[in-house]
Amino acid sequence: MAAAVIGELSATVARLQSDGDGFRWAAPESWHVTLQFLGNAGREEYDCAVARLRELRLPSVPIQLEGLGLFGRAGILIVAVKVTPELLLLQKRVTAATRLCGFVPETRPYQPHITLARGKGQGQRRGILELKTAIGRQRNFTGFVAGEFLLYESFLGPAGSRYEIRERFPLGGR
Question: What is the pLDDT of residue 121?
């Protein structure tokens, strides 16, 4: 993600975040656009997925960030990502490649986004209402071009998820 985008999102988070707001705010290093959630994988599935993903040859993908939004029931603050033909092609090719390894794609329509915060505890409902007011009319954010996609491993903890990069897959012709 480009430094300008991280700066814009960080400034937005700083504007919206407050003590006791009922949210667990994601750290900038964890911001990402999910192409496919794989879930738990054994060594064989992991090796298969990496091998299949390495075979993909796709161009760089322009990422167009839109405004802030909420997944209200889940209590999640997001930045919506526009579903462009390039992003959709990448997502479809990733899910087709991993399907060969036994991973099942989502049945819901692809809704790319970056998670900025997740509600926690009993303050979540109040926090969602306050965020809806604070968001107001938000302009779109600066876009960027993704020159690679990553395979992350996530670790759940009391402070939220922590992500570690396991593999990098270049885009843009090789």
Answer: 65
Token pair of 32 as six digits: 């990402």
Say if CB 78 and CB 164 are below 8 A apart.
Answer: no
Helix, strand, coil proportions of the chain in percent (round to 5)? Answer: 35, 30, 35
The pLDDT tens digits for 98-141 are 999 999 999 999 999 999 998 876 555 666 767 777 776 666 78
Report d(CA 151, CA 36) in Å as an integer.
10
Count of residues in the chain: 174
Q: Which residues pair with 79 in a beta bridge?
A: 68, 114
The string of pLDDT tens digits covering residues 23-33 is 889 999 999 99
- List the structure tokens of 136: 């107001």
CA distance linking residue 78 with residue 27, whole number of Å = 13
The residue type of 38 is L
* CB-side neighbour CA atoms (13 Å) of 61: 26
Contact predicate 12/4, CB 8 Å: no
CA distance 169 to 146: 11
Strands (E), the chain: 23-25, 61-63, 65-71, 76-81, 113-119, 144-146, 148-157, 160-170
Domain extents in the chain? 3-170
CATH superfamily of 3-170: Cyclic phosphodiesterase (3.90.1140.10)
pTM above 0.85, yes or no: yes
